[in-house]
Design brief:
The structure is a single chain. By secondary structure, the protein is an alpha/beta fold. The chain has 7 helices and 7 strands.
């Protein structure tokens, strides 16, 4: 029986991905900063662990207790809306610590066992913001674009060891906690000069488009990516992400 470790499993894409793998008969290690066992089914095939991907000691402790992992799903991430001009560099670094360096750190920690066994998959969850430019998310997009380049290069690097590396690119998910997860980081990021422009953007986002991405779209695409042997690197998830990918 195979084991998947999913980061950021307390809600949204990560939670649904953990549930999906469990429904397919896998062992699931669902990690989150603040463990919540009530959000997942009670099962001997599910373990909920505390994990902060920005802290090396937290990564080491989690992996020490999991045993062998067949698939790592790097899903944990934080969002950010705001004018780049008004975004403190400390906030930029905070976003990169989770969205970029956290992914790299988790991957680096898991790779030795995958390489030694000459099997396994790393699935990195990015965003459709990497498929087409969007305003007011320059920092967030940069953090995800870095992972796109990292993953494409790493996939070539690990081919000789039979370790596969994949990208899943979710579209706009209005039912997720992306906006609420931005938290106090957004305070003051829309100064007066940008207010009229930002209001137009927020109004457009409030009008739910015809094509959006659901949590199940992403969970199913992560599953497909984890089991893909065709050599495909990128897996857009959700009707809007698929449309953006096809229009490139």
């Amino acid at each position: 029986m195979k084991t998947v470790l999913v980061t950021g499993s307390s809600s949204g894409y990560g939670l649904h991905t953990a549930r999906h793998f469990h429904a397919q008969g896998w062992n699931v290690v669902a990690t989150m900063r603040t463990p919540r066992e009530d959000v997942l089914p009670r099962s001997e095939r599910i373990r909920v662990l505390a994990l902060d991907v920005t802290k090396p000691e937290s990564i080491a402790a989690a992996l020490e207790s999991t045993g062998p992992i067949d698939v790592l799903v790097n899903n944990a991430g934080i969002g950010l809306f705001g004018a780049f001009e008004a975004t403190p560099m400390a906030t930029v670094r905070e976003v990169f610590e989770t969205n970029t360096f956290g992914v790299m750190a988790m991957t680096q920690a898991v790779l030795p066992q995958l390489r030694a066994r000459r099997s396994g998959v790393v699935v990195n969850v990015t965003s459709s913001a990497t498929l087409a430019p969007m305003p007011l998310v320059a920092v967030y997009t940069a953090s995800k674009m870095a992972i796109e380049g990292f993953t494409a290069s790493l996939a070539l690097e690990l081919e000789a060891f039979n370790v596969r590396v994949k990208l899943v690119e979710p579209g706009y998910g209005p039912t997720t906690r992306f906006t609420s997860n931005t938290g106090p980081r957004m305070d003051g990021l829309v100064p007066e000069a940008y207010a009229p422009f930002a209001q137009r953007i927020f109004s457009l986002l409030a009008q739910e488009p015809a094509a959006v991405t659901t949590e199940s779209n992403v969970a199913e695409m992560v599953w497909r990516a984890a089991n893909d042997r065709s050599g495909q690197l990128r897996f857009p998830a959700g009707a809007d992400a698929v449309a953006l990918a096809q229009s490139r």
